[in-house]
Amino acid sequence: MADDGFFQRAYDIVRQVPEGRVTTYGQVARMMGEPRKARYVGFAMHSSPGMKGGVPCHRVIFADGSLAPGFAFGGPEEQRRMLEAEGVGFLPSGKVDMSRFSWEA
Questions:
Q1: Active-site annotation holder among 57, 60, 68, 83
Q2: What CATH number is attached to the domain comprising 15?
Q3: Distance (Å, whole) CA 63 – CA 25
C-alpha cells in the first residue's frame, strides 16, 4: 500500500489515546473515515516510530481485547507490560477489560 498520508493520519489519532486507555484498529479506522481499513491501521502501527515518535501504538489492540501477536516493539508480553504500567487492567482470559479501559474520541 502506498502511503498517501494514511499512516500519518492514523498516528495523529493514536497520539490522542490517553494513558491508561486503549483503542482498537477498527476504531482508529472509523475515526479516520476509513471503516474498512482496520488492517491498514495495523500496518501503520507496525511501522510507527513508537513512543520515540510520540505514537503510543501499544494502546491499539484487537476489538475483543486481545493484544497484537506481532507487536513491533517486543511482542505481546512487552505490550502487556507497557499497558499494565499505565494502569490498564486485564481479564483472567489475558484480554484487556474493554468495558473499563476502551477509549473513543
A1: 57
A2: 1.10.10.10
A3: 7
Reported as a single tens digit per residue, the pLDDT across 17-70 is 999 999 999 999 999 999 999 999 999 998 887 777 889 999 999 999 999 887
Q: Is 49 a catalytic residue?
A: no
- Under DSSP, the state recorded for 82 is H
Do 28 and 14 meet the contact criterion of CB atoms below 8 Å apart? yes
- Using only C-alpha atoms, the chain has a radius of gyration, in whole angstroms, of 13
For the chain, what is the domain count? 1
Q: Which three cell numbers stand for residue 20?
A: 491508561
For residue 37, the enclosing domain spans 6-101
Residue type, 87: G
